[in-house]
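Try it yourself: sequence plus NAP, in.
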Amino acid sequence: MKKAIVVGASSGIGKELAIILADKGYKVGITGRRDQLLLNLQATKPGSFLVSCFDVADVKNVPACLQHLVDDLGGLDLLVLSSGTGKINPTLDTKIEQQTNAVNVTGFTAVADWAINYFDAQEYGHFAAITSVAAIRGSRFAPAYNASKAYQVNYLEGLRQRAFHLKKPVYITDIRPGFVDTDMAAGNVFWMAPADKAARQIFGAIENKRSVVYITNRWRLVAFLFRLLPGFLFKRL
Ligand SMILES: NC(=O)c1ccc[n+]([C@@H]2O[C@H](COP(=O)([O-])OP(=O)(O)OC[C@H]3O[C@@H](n4cnc5c(N)ncnc54)[C@H](OP(=O)(O)O)[C@@H]3O)[C@@H](O)[C@H]2O)c1
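Structure, out:
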């Protein structure tokens, strides 16, 4: 039985992916801060899910929480990091920006580093993280969110380069969704993928050990066009 952890499985994309992994026969460690939501998910398939409740921004605790969960699972083949936060912030409230960085930058780094060190030591494994199409350019609506996603994309590229040089079968997948119909995307109305559809595509990308994938595929074109847009035009959007 393969073992996986989904960090941020209490709702949204992470929850749907955890369900797919369990259906495919994985034993899945599910994490988040909202323990009741995790326990509800566990109750749907008690033999398949193990719950661990922790805040990724509490970085001192992250390694111990993950190690404890892996001990309970009896090993680890795949870790998917879905935890993330981001709010529209028109007044540039610094509390919102700092909280976004605490989860999407500091918490992300703590989980990523733990996973890569674990997989390096056992000489195989797969780390996948949900970044975003938002990583491609800045945003006046949520500056920290887009900047933190750019950090994640860049960090994963560094980890992929590192894995290549270490010549171990440790795979890194960067999953870049456009809009997915979850609490986080509330208010967006176009090109919204249902969370279960997004999760199915993400599972396929993980199975195929893809390096970078856009969810859904049409967002690859959007990202391409966004990259091409010169700064003097982009700032007018
Ligand atoms: N929905 C979209 O349109 C979209 C687009 C691009 C990228 N994404 C990315 O997809 C990922 C999942 O988001 P979602 O759309 O599925 O939204 P969601 O339903 O709000 O899920 C967010 C998940 O992150 C967890 N989380 C948030 N803060 C946390 C913290 N401090 N510690 C631990 N876990 C934390 C939440 O669990 P708890 O609240 O229980 O802690 C929840 O499980 C995020 O990284 C997001 O940036 C989403």
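One thing you can check immediately is this: The chain has eight helices and nine strands.
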